[in-house]
Design goal:
The protein has 339 residues and is mostly helical. It has twelve helices and no strands.
Length: 339
Amino acid sequence: MGTAPAPISRGNWLSRILRDRIVELGLLVWVGFAAAIPFLAHGAIPFDQPALANVPYQMRVGIFIFSMPIALIFISITWALTRRRTVDIASRAPERAVALRETVGLLIYGAVVLIAGQFVGHLLGMHGLGLHLTGSMFGLSDTVSPREVYLWSAYNFVFYAALPYWFFRRRGYSNEALCLKSSDLRNDTLVILVILAIGLLSDLPGNHIWRLTSHQLATGATLAFVLSLLGTGFPIMIFLCSILVPRYKKLTGSTAATVVLGGFTYASLHLAEYWTRYDSPAHGALSVIFIVLFFGGPGMVKAYLTLRTGNAWVHLWAYHAIWPHLTGDTPIFVKIFGI
């Protein structure tokens, strides 16, 4: 007589996730980085972030530390909205050996592009070209010319989006294999609307865009939308969500590990943000810590949105192009272009 299988505990899924080595590494980094801040900062944040200049030290640190837990809320909502869907994006990636070579190659390429952007910007007498425009998200305290905006947008679009997309299409990957085609447009639309609505509800009250005139709002929003879409929206959609996320899932076989790797990758692409400082070991360490803590969470959400829908466009419209960049950066574009 056979033995009946043991019932599956509700906590089994959580214990499996927490036993994942990559997840354990992510938790260790989050806790360790958060704990290191007081020993490095000594009560003062050394970054040029005008939007947070008047925020008390403890609250300012908290904004960065709790980016991760907030990301888990968005991930939970996404799961609830897509719980009836079954999407296997690992099947869209090549076999493991090829996936590993493509992943390593693309990461090295991305590092070269990130470093080269700093040299190109400074060589032309401007700020280094990072994944975000100088002044984005945290305010502008320096002069940025329209020429710099155009160069930033073109550089990132060409090297993070256009060339990788062309290269992988040439290798025979279809738009579906690159997660650029919807398999359930109705559910994708629902996810976009719900996630975007939550973001806007948290962002629009008290937003600086309400201080703009109708002309400034219309013109500035158009510039912010188009140039940010080219400069950071499409680059992340192609580089991370279309290409790397399916390969991470293929290599790890784990949704949780893929999400954590997505967070680390997204954060690493911001290591040259305009507000970072590498003029001393302490400032350099704080720069890395704040980058990982702040951008790791959104990177996890972008990866999870792609994993659950199989559609990289979902993250772009739900969690990038409109909120936070259109709503948050329109005043910056108004100032730069003298509108």
